[in-house]
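DM from R.C. (forwarded with permission)

"hey, sorry to bug you on a friday — could you get me a structure for this? deadline for the figure draft is monday and I only need the backbone to look sensible"
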Amino acid sequence: MLLRKLLTNCILDNRVLRYEIKAFFDKLLSCTNYKKWKDIAIENLEKFENLEEKRNL
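My reply, with the result:
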C-alpha cells in the first residue's frame, strides 16, 4: 500500500522493476539534505492534501 502512494508506472522488465516516483514525493526524495524535508513538505502541503482527497473518493 505504501508503494502505491510513492510509485507510478511500475513495469517489470525481465528482472528489473522500472518505475516513476509520484509528484511531491519526487521532490522530497531528490533532496539530499533531510533537514530540508520539512520545508519541502510545507511548501507542497496543498499538493499532498489533494492526493489524499483523491485517494479518499
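R.C.: lifesaver. The chain has a mean pLDDT of 82.
me: no worries. The first strand starts at residue 7 and ends at 13.
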